[in-house]
Amino acid sequence: MASEPIVAVEIGTSKVCALVGEAREDGHIMVTGIGHCASCGVRKGVITDLEKASACVRTAIQGAEQSGQVEIGKVFLVIAGEHMRSMTSQGSTPVMDVKAGVTQDDMAQVMDIARAVNLSHDRELVHSIPRQYMVDDQLVVSNPDGMRGAKLSLDMLIVHGARNVLTNAVQAARNVGLDVMDMAFSGLCAAMATLTPEQKECGVALIDLGAGTTSYLVYAGGAIALAGVLAVGGDHITNDISLGFSVSLKRAEMLKQEAGALIPDAGTHFQRIAIPAEVGFPACSVAASDLRAVIQARMGETLELIAALFKKQGLTQQLGAGLVLTGGGVHLKGVVPLAERIFDLPCAIGMPVNYSGMASVNEGPEYAAPLGMLRYAVRSGAYRQTESIGWSGFLSKLWGRS
Amino acid sequence: MNTADKVCPPPAGRAKSAARLILPRTLVVGLGNGGCKTVAAMARQWKDGPRVVAVNTDGRSLTDAGDLSGLQIGARVIKGLGTGGEPRMGQRAAESDIEAIRGLFREVDVVFLVVCLGGGTGTGAAPLLVEEARKAGALALVFASLPFEFEGKRRMEHARRGLMALHAGADAVICLPNQRLLKLVEDKTNIAAAFQQADEMLARGLKAVWCVISRRGVINLNFEDVSALVHKGNGRCVFACAEGTGPDKVNQVLQAVRAHALLNQGAVLAEAEAFLVSVMGGNDLSLKEVDQLMSGIARIGRAEALTMTGVCCESEWQDRLFVVFLVVEKKDADGLAFVPPQRDDEAHDGPIGAAPDEAAPPEPVARSKITQADLFGKFNQGRFKDVDATVVEGTNLDEPTFKRRGIIIQKVLRNHNN
Q1: What is the CATH number of the domain that holds A226?
Q2: Given a cut of 50, is residue A230 above it in pLDDT?
Q3: Inter-chain touch A293–B407, beta carbons under 8 Å
Q4: Per the CB 3.0–4.6 Å rule, which of A45, A212, B4, B73 could disulfide with A81?
Q5: Which residues span the domain enclosing B139?
Q6: DSSP state at residue B266
Q7: Mutation site, B412, B414, B417, interface A, largest A CB count within 10 A
Q8: What is the pTM for the complete model shown?
């Protein structure tokens, strides 16, 4: 018997997307409904016009209700935007009963301590993910339950975001009568959808090439080592093309999607790409090599910035499984070889793993984040007791719910 | 001489449309000591040119400029003396007389701003003047000279920042690094003469571009051509002049181009992305000579380079040939023409005028108006105009990468066949 339907909503920069899914055995997720809508009032992953964004959410939800044959009242939100930051936090506590060893109580205690970080008043904690436990300052990778020692320490990754941005996202959903059950960071969601346990074990970096932002998440040493967002995305490529060739954003988007490429191609190098005439605009053409130069400069720079960050954090050497790319940006021709060259790591396009249902959804890397949100919702449902304390506190503060 | 008649038909015969024949109302502004000297030199050798105004903080230099109309700025702030080579003072001076500066640009279509960067007035006030000119709806074309290296690091640093601000604000910047003149002058030339030569160089380039724009040529080029060319190089242009006299004038010009210091012995031209050639000759200039000249130049330049040609005949150039090259330089031709803004440097975080050197300001100065944010705000932000800029390590990532990296691209081409 399948679980009750779970709905994930991503208010993205290019599209608002709602997915309906059901949890099956072994973590498998069946996608039963999908609705999407071209996005309005969202820039760089952040809502700039609440009314328009809400209208988009409504359209997407209606589409999902129709295709999934369900009524939607509760949703899980995917959160993006540069305001999302990560930091590590450590906490330790003496083990209560040394003879009995570490208990679940000790683990809950140390988690509370490590989670109690001092965020400034305009920040809100979104995730607190245990990275590794230590007993008496000796490393224990995952589960210290029952181990003997006097002191238990925990190393945690804290993901936090700007309170007003998070509030706006929740408000956009509430405006159309939806209850937000939980939120999750888009990079984490995309990782949940596409990365296999083996990859996480070997060390892997996930880069989600979105329209408004580029999110990254790094697994090193079996745990999440880094997460963050760069507010540069596919929109910037479109904007560069628009400014560079003095064409409208619509035409720039078309040029990017139809003729955009990142690697030289002998066949098309000297060609000119025709832009058909429209009302008010005469037909014209741009040089394929120039178009490529503009796109490559932007995409190259974005990846270089992230590569430099990984290098600075000493993570590049720990990525045994290389690099996984997701998001709409992977449709640009040649993005994989470009990323391989810049990171000097093997690189692959991340496909959602262990999903079934709507074919168009589970094959598209651009749906990685909402698909991952479904999985996150399934898993956090199981661990609600330990995971959602801080979060429900936040929601109740905002909306007066219990 | 019947060739003259063939080459110089009445201008109306070539006019594309009557409405476009109206000359742009042009104003030449010389700013700072160097700029004033340059425009004075220009006005002397060029009587029927456009309106010229000299703008300076130093009242004495304005009286030296002779019968030019002058505007003294910052009289209240710095009491009619110079700025002491302090761009902040130049900027303050311009700010204090902003109304008078606005008055200058009333009913003007094209503003040529002539400035020798590195000093106080020119470097500090130029970005403001450009801003005002553009606010008044005029096209702003800047002729800037960069100091000689011997003038010291401080002046060079000021000049670099000034140039950066001008690149951000002006429609086009044409740049003459004085250092290249060293190769041009004789060993014995005294220093005053060398500076005068630099001024005259700028004046010539200015005149050349003005001639192109005012469309008096037999083969016309207009402002759109110049601005398209300069934009192609993101405003990064150098110019050079070559002259020939007598029956062998074409060969003399070609020879001069191959040995020209400003063109790096022709190498700049050979690697150029695009260049504009403006030929000025007397009424005796024959079609054959022009053909000979152009094919000679084509052999020097790259085959793919975009070339624009203009020819204009004036009686004063009788039996002489004067050729002006406006060359969009290859990105790092020799590093002299354009020094990319060094944003990694801490010192650059301050206002443009804020010198990092030891010289303390004479008095507390109000924070200068042009901040880094303003500089970054100058480009067309497109769809990101209403959201926070993405700034990473001092670089605004919303600005197109290809622009920041100086990648030259060609704008769209109309399909004329349909």
Answers
A1: 3.30.420.40
A2: yes
A3: yes
A4: A45
A5: 23-214+339-356+366-418
A6: T
A7: B412
A8: 0.55
